[in-house]
């Protein structure tokens, strides 16, 4: 009987294409609320969890927590825990997260050009 690893022919590793890199970048922003959270935190803002909840009323608490945890794991958001009673947790963007600002501004301008085409 042949073993699985002997049947599988692995292709040599190749350099990722531009499409592969775009797909990888978009995975960081996957999720209905991640872009909204980013825009709330741009400009060096530091917001408590309750402030983010109030700023984005349509998101459930569970979903907000989930999206923030994913963004923290990806290195986009920093979670700051103040050990006090009652507990205080704040969120801000990392330098890498803040570096998304120009790219998202360009995306907004691109979308606005569709709404207001030059004649």
UniProtKB/TrEMBL annotation:
InterPro entries: HTH_HxlR, WH-like_DNA-bd_sf, WH_DNA-bd_sf. Pfam families: HxlR. Keywords: DNA-binding, Transcription, Transcription regulation. SUPFAM superfamilies: Winged helix' DNA-binding domain (SSF46785). GO terms for molecular function: DNA binding. This is Helix-turn-helix transcriptional regulator. Residues 15-119 form the HTH hxlR-type domain. PROSITE patterns: HTH_HXLR (PS51118). It comes from Rhodovastum atsumiense.
């Amino acid at each position: 009987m042949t073993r699985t690893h002997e049947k599988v022919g692995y292709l040599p590793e190749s350099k990722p294409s531009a499409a592969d890199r775009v797909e990888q970048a978009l995975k960081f922003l996957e999720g209905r609320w991640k872009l909204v959270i980013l825009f709330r935190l741009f400009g060096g803002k530091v917001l408590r969890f309750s402030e983010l909840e109030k700023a984005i009323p349509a998101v459930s608490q569970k979903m907000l927590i989930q999206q923030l945890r994913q963004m923290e794991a990806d290195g986009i958001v920093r979670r700051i825990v103040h050990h006090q009673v009652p507990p205080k947790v704040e969120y801000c963007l990392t330098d890498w997260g803040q570096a998304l600002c120009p790219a998202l501004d360009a995306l907004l301008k691109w979308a606005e050009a569709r709404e207001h085409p030059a004649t």
